[in-house]
Amino acid sequence: xxxxxxxxxxxxxxxxxxxxxxxxxxxxxxxxxxxxxxxxxxxxxxxxxxxxxxxxxxxxxxxxxxxxxxxxxxxxxxxxxxxxxxxxxxxxxxxxxxxxxxxxxxxxxxxxxxxxxxxxxxxxxxxxxxxxxxxxxxxxxxxxxxxxxxxxxxxxxxxxxxxxxxxxxxxxxxxxxxxxxxxxxxxxxxxxxxxxxxxxxxxxxxxxxxxx
Length: 212
Fold this sequence. Notes:
By secondary structure, the chain is α+β, with helices and mostly antiparallel strands. It has ten helices and seven strands.
């Protein structure tokens, strides 16, 4: 039964799965367990199984199984899945669903647009990490410029990781990002060293780039 339903989802167009006529104006769509029952009825599965069987399916199905089945239909409409914690940094008005696991499917074009904006808004984090790495990590880079260019410059994936998870580790260093206060905390070998805010980072980075 589970295999049949999941294969049905994989093979069905997204318009039918979500009962949506047009996706042109929908840059992103949230999916979680609250709408699984709607998906089953949109696929007319009540004609294949009785209510008790569908209820058992919903109780046993894991989120990762359902999302995996939905990926192909979403991809055909130009969407990719991303973590809602990361998405909340893209869309400032989006509220995290802490009581239920939610996946965001976002149009690839829109995702690229938001990634560019994200790099602009949070590049100061990469600059702060470069400063900490150069001044406190003892690596063999001759100056801050080389450290930044080799490890951090335009590293979109690193920014996404720290926004999604809330922290990033590199060798002996650990950076924790506090989203509410927009502050970055740096630790080395478990010992706290520095709190960074955007304004301070910009001036310090410029100063050190000129000095070294």
